[in-house]
Amino acid sequence: MTKISSLLTTQVIKIPLEAEDKDELFTELVQVLINAGTLPAARRAEAEQVLEAREEKMSTGVGGGLALPHGRLANLEAPLLALGIAPNGLEYDALDGLPVNVVLAIFTPESDPEAHVQILTEVSHLFLVPGLVSRLSACHSSVEALELIKREE
Which among 14, 37, 115, 150 could disulfide-bond with 84, CB atoms 3.0 to 4.6 Å apart, if both were Cys? Predict the structure, then answer.
């Protein structure tokens, strides 16, 4: 199984998020991937649309302060993740009605549905760790957040 920490670098972790709503959030997380050089800027609109289309089906705010917007992109060689932390919470229309503090955007290759399921499975196992969302919410740097994830995997 792929460890989530192996798909994250400090360059794809944004603390604090600046977005004030879900639309701004998707734009911000896609920009994080572009700034890190893992997603070409020419694919910005496509990546945002993939997240928005998934969100229209059902909120990816899974509850407990966590949101997992995700989707599959054509012509992607490997999975891409971007982690954003909103210490004060962000309105997200989560399933429990509460704001989210931790958002992990996940893009997987359209040609590899197994990778998509595998990563979502690994993420769900990781976030079963009691108190992880609140501890991530308290992180002040991307280094601190990545180290916490590595310790808990």
Answer: 14
